[in-house]
Design a protein that fits this description.
The complex is a heterodimer.
Chain A: H1 9-25, H2 29-39, H3 54-68, H4 74-87, H5 92-105, H6 109-120, H7 129-163, H8 168-188, H9 196-208, H10 212-224, H11 232-244, H12 249-262, H13 269-278, H14 282-295, H15 305-321, H16 325-333, H17 339-343, H18 346-355, H19 357-371, H20 376-387, H21 391-402, H22 404-411
Helix pairs in contact in A: 1-2, 2-3, 3-4, 4-5, 5-6, 5-7, 6-7, 7-8, 7-9, 8-9, 9-10, 10-11, 11-12, 12-13, 13-14, 13-15, 14-15, 15-19, 16-22, 18-19, 18-20, 19-20, 19-21, 19-22, 20-21
Chain B: E1 15-17, E2 22-25, E3 31-35, H1 70-87, H2 92-114, H3 161-165, H4 199-212, H5 219-228, H6 249-254, H7 262-275, H8 292-302, H9 309-319, H10 325-328, H11 342-358, H12 364-377, H13 388-411, H14 428-448, E4 486-489, E5 492-495, E6 499-501, H15 510-513, H16 526-539, H17 543-557, H18 559-564, E7 571-573
Helix pairs in contact in B: 1-2, 1-4, 2-4, 4-7, 8-9, 8-11, 9-11, 11-16, 11-17, 16-17
Classes of the chains: A mainly alpha, B mainly alpha.
Chain lengths: 412, 574
C-alpha cells in the first residue's frame, strides 16, 4: 500500500503502467485493456524525450493485448496497427515490419505481402541510416515471400509436369518470382548479420537455376567473412551444399572442422566422426576420436546410441591394435574426474539397462575400457546381460576381461 | 460597495461605466459623478462593464473570442466552486457574501502590483464577458509567436516559462501567446508581485471562506471532494464561456496536473489571510464542527472506535488547552502562534488517547486485548468489552481493501477534459487529430475490457468508512465498553496501562526544518504505524503530518515531566 497521497499526471501514468504490466504478466488481458484505456490519454502529452514514449508503449502493449484477446481477431488488430502507423512517422517502417510478422504468424501470407509492398513504396519522413536499414529489411522479407511464391509455383509445375500438362503461365510466374526474390535476397545478405533463412532460400534458388558458382561464393562469404558474426549454421549450410555438389572429402572435412571448433555438440559430429574414421590418415583418426569424445561431453548426447557406438568402435579398434593408446590417455585425462559420475553411475547403469539395451551395451564397452572391469557400470550391465543370456554381453565381458591390462596402462 | 443604487432619473439599476470611469445608467444614459476603482463583482450580474484604460478601446479579437484577463478566469472558477459547495450544503452566504468579498479584497490588494505596464499604464477595471451579447465568431487567425508546440520530440511545458519572460513587450490589444490578455505577463518575474493567483489557491480561498463561516467541512474533506470531482477543480476551465478562448500560457495557468496538496493549500490560505489583512477570524468554540471535541467524535465514529473514547479525547483536549478559542481561532499574520490544522489535530488527539490506553508498543495492546477477551467471557452487561485485537482485524481488512481501491483509482485517474486544448492556433488540427485518435483507441480498448461500466462518481460523503450497529457480525465497535481495559482507582476509572512512550524527546524547530519531528516507519511500533496509516488514509495526508501533531500534544501533556528529566524519559510513568 502506498502512503503517498500526492498525485500528478506523470505519476498516475507511471502507476497505471505498473498495473498494465502486472495484468499482462498474469495474462489478464481484460484488466490490461481496462488500464490501457486510461493510459491512452498520455498520448496527448507526448512530449517526452524518454527512450520509450507513450505512443510506442501504446503500440507495443496494444498489439500484445489484441493479439491475445480480441473480439474480431485480425480485423481489429489490423485496424489498430493502421492507427499506430499514422501515429509516429519515425516508427512507420518498424510498425509495418512487426505487423507483417503478426500476419505471417496467422498464415496471412498475401496480406503480409501487400503490407510489405506498401511499406516499400513509402517515401515520407526523414532520411536516416536507421530508416535505410529498416527499408532493407522490408525488401528482404518481401524477397522471402517472393521465394515462397516461387516455391509454390515450382510445386505446381512439378505436379503438372507429372500429369503431362505444360503450363506456360505458371512457369513465367515462377521465373518472375525468382527474379524479384533473387534481387532482394542478394542485397540483404551483403550486410553483415545473421540471415539464415534468407541465405538458405537464395542458395536454393541458385541451385535450381544451376548457378552453383554463385551459390558457393555466397556460402563461403557467409561462413568465412570475418565481418559477419560467427554463425555455426553458416558452416552447416556450406557443408550441406558441398555434400550435394559431391565435393571432395577434404573440403567437407574442412567445413565440419570449423563447426566442431565452434559447436562441439552439433548433431553433425557423428557424420564428421564417421567421415574421419573412413580416412586413411592417422591425423584424421586422431581428430575423429577428439570429436566424438567432445560430443559426448554434452548432456544432450548422453543417450545417443549411435554416438556411443562410434566411440566404442574406435576405442575397441585402438585397444585391439594396441597402437595409439596415448590418444585415449590424452582424451581421458581431462575427463576421468567427471565422466564416471556423469555417464557411468550405478543409477544410470540400471536405467540404461532397463530402457535401452543397445545403449547400455555400447556404454558398457566404453566404461569397461576406460574404467576397467571393476567399474560399477560395466559390472552391473555385463552381469545383467549375461543373466539375460544375451550373447553379445558375454562376448563383451570376455573382451573387457581380456584387455584389462590395457586399462591399467591408461589409468596409470 | 456594490453600486446598487437606483438611477436618479429612471430608477433602474442598470449601470455601465464610461471611459472616464463614471457610472452611467443604461436605461436613460444618465451619467453620474460617481466613479469607481473597484468593479461590481456581483456574480450574478448581467451587466457588461467595459474595460477602461488610458487610451485605446479594445476591439474584439478576430477569433471570435473576447478579451479577458486571467483574474476573470479565476473569478469564474471560484464562482463554480462556490456553487458546488452550496450544492453540498454549505450556506449560501459563503458564495454570495464571504467568498465574493474576499475575492474583491484580493483584487484590490493586488491590482496595484499586478499589472504595471512598462509605460506606467494601469488597469482600472475588468470586464466580464457575457456571451449573449457577443458578435458571431469569426475564423481564428494564427498566432504571431509559437510558444509551445506539440511535436513529440519537444520538451515539456515546464521548460518554456523562461522563454516567456524573454519575449518583448506584449501589448494589451493583441494576445500573442495566450487567449487571455495578460496571460503571458503572468510568469514574468516581478518583485512587486505578491501572491499571484493559482489553481490551488482557489481552494485556499474556498477554505478560507469556509473557515470564516465555520462551516462543517475540514480542509481534507474539501480537497477530497475536489479530487473526486464534486468540487470543480481539475478541468474547470471547460465551463468558461465560449468566448473566453484559452490557449498558450493560459493552459499553464488553468490546467491542473496534480492533486492539490494539503500543506500547500493550507499555507497559501494563511498567506492569503495575512496578505488581505483580515482580522481575527470568528472564534472556534466547542460547539463548532472544527473544534477538536466535535471532530474527534466524528473521527472516532469513522475509525470504528468506541464512543466512550470521546470522554478521553475531551479530557486530553482540556488538559493541553487545545480546546481554547484563542488557541484554535485563526489570527492572520500572527507569526507566534502555530496555525492549527483542525482535522490533523483531532486525529492526533485520538492517537494520543490510544497510546494512553493501549500503549501501542507492539506488545502491551495485545496482552491487554487478551485480558479484555477473558473478562468478556464473564461479561454480564449488555455491551461487550472492547478488544483491540478484534478491532485491529476488522479495520485492517477494511483499510487494506479501501487502500487498494484508492491505489487503483490513482492509476485510473483521468486528467484530460472533454474540450481539447491548443497551445497555439496552428496546432489546432494536429491536436484535434490526436484527440480523435485517443477517443478511437479508448473506445476500442474500452470494449475489450468487458462490461466495465464508467466509474460512477460516488456520492459525496463526509464519511469514507461507515459502520453500522445493526450488523450482527460484531464488526461495529461504537457501542463497546472500555471497562475491559480500565480499572477502578480511587473511585475513578483509570487506564490499566501505566506507561507511555514519547514519539520524540525533543521537538524540532519547525521553522528551520519544516517539521516538529521526523517520522520514519521503521523506528516506531507497528501498531503506532497502523493507526497513523488509518488516519493518514482518512485525511489523505502524509503520516508525518499527523505524527507532528501527536508529538506536539504529547509535549504539552507531559510538559512538566519533561522539564524535570529532560534526558532520560523515553518511557514515562503516568
Amino acid at each position: 500500500s502506498s502512503h503517498e497521497h500526492r498525485l500528478n499526471f506523470q505519476k498516475s501514468k507511471e502507476v497505471c503502467l505498473n498495473y498494465i504490466q502486472d495484468a499482462m504478466l498474469q495474462k489478464q488481458w481484460k484488466r490490461a485493456a481496462e488500464f490501457l484505456t486510461v493510459y491512452i490519454e498520455a498520448l496527448e502529452k507526448d512530449f517526452s524525450r524518454e527512450y520509450m514514449g507513450p505512443s510506442e508503449i501504446i503500440w507495443r502493449i496494444g498489439s500484445e493485448i489484441l493479439w491475445h484477446h480480441s473480439h474480431n481477431g485480425m480485423k481489429e488488430f489490423n485496424s489498430f496497427i493502421e492507427q499506430m502507423k499514422t501515429l509516429a512517422i519515425k516508427r512507420y517502417l518498424k510498425v509495418c515490419l512487426e505487423h507483417v510478422f503478426h500476419l505471417l504468424c496467422n498464415g496471412l501470407i498475401d496480406e503480409a505481402y501487400q503490407t510489405l509492398s506498401l511499406a516499400e513504396s513509402w517515401r515520407h519522413g526523414e532520411h536516416t541510416s536507421v530508416r535505410d536499414k529498416e527499408m532493407k529489411l522490408i525488401e528482404a522479407y518481401r524477397g522471402l515471400l517472393d521465394y515462397y511464391r516461387w516455391a509454390k509455383q515450382k510445386h505446381i509445375l512439378l505436379e503438372h509436369g507429372q500429369d503431362g500438362f505444360d503450363d506456360l503461365s505458371v512457369e513465367q510466374e515462377m521465373h518472375s518470382c525468382f527474379r524479384k526474390a533473387a534481387v532482394n535476397l542478394k542485397e540483404i545478405i551483403k550486410i553483415p548479420g545473421v540471415w539464415d533463412p534468407f541465405v538458405k532460400c537464395y542458395v536454393d534458388l541458385l541451385e535450381f537455376y544451376g548457378d552453383h558458382d554463385e551459390a558457393r561464393q555466397v556460402l563461403n562469404e557467409y561462413a568465412y567473412n570475418s565481418k559477419f558474426p560467427a554463425n555455426p549454421n553458416a558452416h552447416v549450410y556450406l557443408y550441406q551444399f558441398l555434400k550435394r555438389q559431391g565435393e571432395s572429402k577434404k573440403s567437407l572435412i574442412l567445413a565440419l572442422k570449423i563447426l566442431h571448433d565452434s559447436v562441439p555438440s552439433h548433431e553433425l559430429m557423428i557424420d564428421f566422426n564417421t567421415m574421419l574414421q573412413k580416412s586413411k590418415k592417422r591425423k584424421k583418426h586422431r581428430l575423429g576420436l577428439e570429436v566424438i569424445f567432445a560430443a559426448l561431453d554434452y548432456a544432450g548426447w548422453k543417450e545417443n546410441v549411435k554416438a556411443w557406438s562410434c566411440l566404442a568402435k574406435q576405442l575397441k579398434q585402438i585397444v585391439i591394435s594396441e597402437k595409439h593408446l596415448d590418444w585415449i590417455k590424452q582424451e581421458w585425462n581431462s575427463r576421468r574426474d567427471w565422466w564416471p559420475a556423469f555417464h557411468f553411475s550405478r543409477y544410470l547403469a540400471k536405467r540404461n539397462w532397463q530402457e535401452n539395451e543397445s545403449l547400455s551395451y555400447e556404454k558398457a564397452l566404453v566404461a569397461g575400457i576406460l574404467l576397467g572391469k571393476d567399474c560399477k557400470y560395466f559390472k552391473y550391465v555385463s552381469h545383467q546381460g549375461c543373466k539375460a543370456q544375451v550373447k553379445r554381453f558375454r562376448l563383451l565381458k570376455k573382451f573387457v576381461n581380456k584387455h584389462n591390462p590395457v586399462y591399467l596402462r591408461i589409468s596409470g | 460597495r456594490d453600486f446598487n443604487e437606483r438611477c436618479a432619473q429612471c430608477s433602474e439599476v442598470n449601470w455601465g461605466l464610461t471611459d472616464g470611469g463614471r457610472f452611467y445608467c443604461r436605461s436613460c444614459h444618465n451619467v453620474t459623478e460617481r466613479t469607481t476603482e473597484v468593479i461590481n463583482t456581483d456574480f450574478v450580474s448581467n451587466t457588461r462593464v467595459q474595460t477602461i484604460s488610458k487610451g485605446s478601446r479594445k476591439k474584439e479579437k478576430t477569433d471570435g473570442g473576447c478579451e479577458w484577463y486571467v483574474c476573470e478566469g479565476f473569478q469564474l472558477v471560484l464562482k463554480k466552486q462556490a456553487e458546488a459547495l452550496e450544492a453540498l450544503g454549505v450556506c449560501p452566504q459563503m458564495k454570495d457574501e464571504i467568498l465574493c468579498n474576499f475575492w474583491r479584497l484580493y483584487l484590490q490588494k493586488t491590482k496595484q502590483a499586478y499589472c504595471d505596464r512598462p509605460d506606467g499604464e494601469t488597469l482600472q477595471a475588468l470586464s466580464v464577458c457575457n456571451s449573449s451579447t457577443d458578435a458571431e465568431s469569426e475564423p481564428e487567425t494564427p498566432s504571431l509567436l509559437h510558444l509551445l508546440s506539440l511535436s513529440e520530440s519537444e520538451g515539456d511545458l515546464q521548460t518554456d516559462s523562461s522563454f516567456i519572460s524573454s519575449t518583448s513587450k506584449v501589448s494589451a490589444s493583441t494576445s500573442v501567446c495566450s487567449g487571455s490578455v495578460d496571460g503571458s505577463l503572468y510568469f514574468m518575474k516581478n518583485q512587486k508581485e505578491k501572491l499571484r493567483m493559482t489553481m490551488p489557491m482557489t481552494l485556499s480561498f474556498c477554505y478560507m471562506a469556509l473557515l470564516w463561516l465555520r462551516e462543517p467541512m475540514t480542509l481534507s474533506d474539501l480537497l477530497r471532494f475536489a479530487v473526486e470531482g464534486h468540487i470543480p477543480y481539475l478541468n474547470v476551465f471547460q465551463h468558461f464561456p465560449e468566448k473566453m478562448k484559452l490557449y498558450g500560457v493560459d493552459l499553464k495557468i488553468f490546467c491542473v496536473e496534480s492533486w492539490p496538496v494539503y500543506e500547500e493549500v493550507h499555507n497559501k490560505m494563511l498567506e492569503l489571510a495575512a496578505f488581505l489583512d483580515l482580522p481575527r477570524f470568528p472564534d472556534i468554540t466547542d460547539s463548532c464542527f472544527l473544534h477538536p471535541d466535535m471532530l474527534c467524535m466524528k473521527y472516532l465514529m469513522e475509525a470504528n472506535l468506541p464512543d466512550e473514547l470521546h470522554n478521553w479525547t475531551c479530557r486530553v483536549v482540556k488538559k493541553v488547552c487545545i480546546g481554547e478559542a484563542d488557541f484554535l481561532t485563526l489570527v492572520p499574520g500572527n507569526k507566534s502562534t502555530r496555525k492549527v490544522k483542525y482535522d490533523v489535530l483531532a486525529a492526533a488527539v485520538i492517537i494520543v488517547v490510544l497510546k494512553l490506553l493501549f500503549l501501542l508498543d507492539d506488545n502491551y495492546e495485545w496482552l491487554l486485548s487478551d485480558f479484555a477477551e477473558e473478562r468478556n467471557k464473564n461479561n454480564k452487561e449488555g455491551r461487550p468489552y472492547f478488544e483491540f485485537k478484534k478491532w485491529y482485524k476488522v479495520i485492517k481488512c477494511s483499510l487494506d481493501a479501501e487502500q487498494k481501491k484508492l491505489d487503483e483509482e490513482r492509476a485510473k485517474y483521468q486528467w484530460r477534459c472533454e474540450k481539447p486544448l491548443f497551445y497555439s492556433a496552428d496546432k489546432k488540427s494536429k491536436v484535434l487529430k490526436r484527440r480523435q485518435m485517443v477517443v478511437n483507441l479508448q473506445n476500442q480498448f474500452g470494449k475489450l475490457s468487458g462490461s466495465v461500466q464508467p466509474a460512477e462518481k460516488p456520492n459525496p460523503s463526509s464519511f469514507q468508512l461507515s459502520w453500522s450497529e445493526e450488523n450482527t457480525d460484531g464488526s461495529c465497535f461504537h457501542g463497546h465498553s472500555l471497562k475491559g481495559i480500565l480499572q477502578e482507582k480511587r473511585g475513578v476509572l483509570a487506564a490499566m496501562n501505566p506507561d507511555y512512550w514519547l514519539c520524540t524527546v525533543k521537538l524540532c524547530r519547525e521553522r528551520l526544518c519544516g517539521h516538529l519531528a521526523h517520522y520514519r516507519e521503521v523506528e516506531f511500533p507497528q501498531s503506532y504505524h497502523f493507526v497513523l496509516r488509518l488516519f493518514s488514509f482518512l485525511l489523505r495526508i502524509q503520516p508525518s503530518s499527523i505524527h507532528d501533531d501527536v508529538c506536539l500534544i504529547e509535549h504539552k501533556l507531559f510538559n512538566k515531566k519533561l522539564c524535570k528529566k529532560p534526558k532520560y524519559n523515553a518511557v514515562i510513568r503516568k
